[in-house]
Amino acid sequence: MNVDVYSKNPTNPNRLPHNINDVVMSIKRLGRWFFMPHRFEGDWRVLESEWRKKILPPDPLIEKLKVLERRKIAFDVGAGTGYFTVHLAKLFEKVYAVECNLEFAKVLARKGIKNIGIIVTDKPPEIDFEIDFVLFADSLHEIECRDEYAEWCRKHARYLAVIDWNERCEYGPPKEDRIDPSSVIELFDGFEFEELPVYECHFFLFGRNELKDQPRG
Ligand SMILES: C[S@@+](CC[C@H](N)C(=O)[O-])C[C@H]1O[C@@H](n2cnc3c(N)ncnc32)[C@H](O)[C@@H]1O
């Protein structure tokens, strides 16, 4: 199985993948190095359930990404078991899944998708290349180091999307833990956002880094 797992510094996006034994060993080592707070507490299968596909279909995101001019590198931050990552892998040459939960990372690794690299960490990974797109799907409200991620995105990312639970929905995380769209826009200062009203239970913000990508025409 060809899946690569990095510790913190995937400096070469074209690095050759390891085999599955390397993946498992790296994950075990990383598990000892990183403190991982407990976050999403449910069974990971919920993340990939038919119910989730109904309330959060990936199609609106896919349609939005298809028209991007550059589709070389994407990051899925708080990727979980890869519900969105697998779709990103069809659109981008290389996708990095950043996930702090080892169990979820292992589930994604077992999918064996060649152009997905898995980074097990709860902090923004150190990189020295540009990113075409960063996704935070149902993850930003769980991420403690949001300011660090905002800085990281300003520095590296051309586009980003934040999809997260809206305040109206009766399902989902406790309402006091949710994040509202206006604070996301404030957090990612330097990005110009549009909001796509496509989901019942989620808001969907798509942002363009004003310093990196100029509108055409
Ligand atoms: C509700 S799950 C969503 C997973 C995936 N994005 C999806 O849509 O299926 C949120 C994920 O964010 C991860 N997470 C939370 N804080 C994180 C952090 N600081 N760094 C990386 N992952 C984080 C959790 O472990 C969990 O897998």
Provide the number of structural domains: 1
Distance between the termini: 45 Å
Bound ligands, each once: S-adenosylmethionine
Quaternary structure of the protein: single chain
CATH homologous superfamily annotation: Vaccinia Virus protein VP39
Element pattern in H and E: EHHHEHEHEEHEHEE
CATH topology: Rossmann fold
Largest sheet: 8 strands, mixed
Strand content: 15-25%
Query: Could you tell me the radius of gyration in angstroms?
Result: 16 Å
What structural class do helix, strand and pairing data support? alpha/beta
Instruction: Please state the average pLDDT score.
Output: 86
Outline type: globular
Q: Residue share in helices?
A: 25-40%
Poorly predicted spans:
1-19, 24-38
The total strand number stands at 8
Count of discrete alpha- or pi-helical segments spanning 4 or more residues? 7
CATH domain class: Alpha Beta
Strands in their spatial order, largest beta sheet: 1-4-3-2-5-6-8-7
CATH architecture type: 3-Layer(aba) Sandwich
Structure characterization notes:
It is a single chain. This protein is of the alpha/beta class and 217 residues long. The protein has a single domain, classed as Rossmann fold. Helices cover 29% and strands 22% of the residues. It contains seven helices and eight strands. It has helices spanning 20-33, 50-55, 59-66, 85-91, 102-110, 146-156, 181-187; strands at residues 4-6, 73-77, 94-99, 116-120, 131-137, 157-165, 191-195, 202-209. The longest helix is centred in the N-terminal third of the chain and has 14 residues, at 20-33. The N and C termini lie far apart (45 Å). The model is unreliable at 1-19 and 24-38 (pLDDT under 50). The structure holds S-adenosylmethionine (SAM).
